[in-house]
Protein: Methyltransferase type 11 domain-containing protein
Amino acid sequence: MPVPFDKQAYWHDRFSTETSFEWLLGSAEFMSIIKPILTSLEPSSARILHIGSGTSDLQNYFRHLGFLDVTNVDYEPLAADRGRQLEKQAFGNVKMKYAVADATQLHLSNDSGGECCKFDLVVDKSTVDAISCGGEDQVLQMASCVKEHLAPGAVWISLSYSASRFDIERLPFDVQVLAKVPTPKSKATDPDIFHWCYLLRPK
Structure:
């Protein structure tokens, strides 16, 4: 039976014991790929949205670079707890935001009211892969939510195991490959397998 990555119950059970895990790439390697994008942002004012934060320590890497206005979202409440724990372990306090929300029904409001919060960068590490287990329409719903939360000129960076993750009709983004990262081989004769880092700009 396939793992039900699109079901909240799976993540609740997993995060009840898991304290730290990185999907596809470690945070340091992921940050090295997106560094050219980050250099165009001002750490003191840029707003970053990390969707499907899980038990990753990616938020800590943003904070090390001076980005504090980082919102980490996951639809399992235990993920928010894990994120706060990881930040506090690294820095002694918690300054970033942690929210419980479904990436396919995302509506983050500004503190001042119901207006949709806009971000200068949106990232996910394989969250889109988990959501794709629920079908193509779920990916389109996530894409629509991401687009709604992008500030003018902002982009979405998505890490996936799939070479065709965004080959979807009606996708409201132009897609380019930012990086194609080979996975380790056990033997030299093993087939080439890659992880794909996509840069998506709204149409």
About this structure: The mean pLDDT is 92. The chain has one domain: 8-202. The first strand starts at residue 48 and ends at 51. The longest helix spans residues 77-91.
